[in-house]
């Protein structure tokens, strides 16, 4: 392990608190209002703006990760709850266009650097996710 990893563990031993935790805003990822030219400025009239269609999100943790996987499951739940809320009043066409989803996966025999320590499973998960996303784009 590198010295940075030792230092980080020492510095964060008493705990750390984010100023604006991601869990409070994760539900908005891929759901922002955008203008016809792709920007998200508020100067565009509301009638000209549209909401993003969501994006597929995968949270991956190592089986022995120092990060708490409960945060990943909580984020997954918030994203999927927001999708349900948005699609509740959506038209059939809007439902068809929606690409939002979230899942939380655990890579076996890996710590936080799962792309190194559990690279075989990590690579397989990545291939599968990219294939599914590609297929959705061509059939959707």
Keywords:
140 residues; alpha+beta; two-stranded parallel ribbon; globular
Distance between the first and last residues' Cα: 44 Å
The portion of residues forming beta strands comes to 5-15%
Q: Uncertain runs with pLDDT below 50, 5 residues or more?
A: none
Helix content: 40-55%
Q: What is the number of helices?
A: 5
State the major sheet. 2 strands, antiparallel
Gross geometry? globular
Structural class: alpha+beta
Radius of gyration: 18 Å
Mean pLDDT: 85
Give the assembly state of these chains: single chain
Strand order of the largest sheet: 1-2
Order of helices and strands: HEEEHHEHH
Number of strands: 4
Give an overview of the whole structure:
With about 140 residues, the protein is an alpha+beta fold. It is built from five helices and four strands. The strands form two sheets. A two-stranded antiparallel sheet has the order 1-2. It has a two-stranded parallel sheet with strand order 3-4. The N and C termini lie far apart (about 45 Å). The model has no long low-confidence stretch (mean pLDDT about 85).
């Amino acid at each position: 392990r590198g010295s940075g990893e030792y230092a980080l563990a020492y510095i964060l031993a008493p705990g750390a608190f984010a100023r604006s935790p991601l869990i409070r805003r994760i539900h908005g990822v891929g759901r922002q209002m955008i203008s016809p030219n792709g920007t998200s400025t508020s100067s565009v009239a509301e009638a000209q703006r549209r909401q993003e269609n969501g994006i597929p999100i995968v949270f991956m943790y190592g089986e022995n990760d120092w990060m708490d996987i409960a945060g990943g499951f909580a984020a997954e739940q918030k994203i999927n709850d927001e999708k349900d809320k948005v699609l509740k009043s959506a038209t059939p066409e809007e439902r068809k266009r929606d690409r939002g989803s979230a899942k939380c996966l655990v890579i076996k025999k890996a710590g936080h650097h799962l792309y190194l320590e559990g690279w075989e499973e990590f690579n397989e998960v990545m291939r599968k996710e990219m294939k599914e996303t590609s297929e959705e784009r061509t059939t959707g």
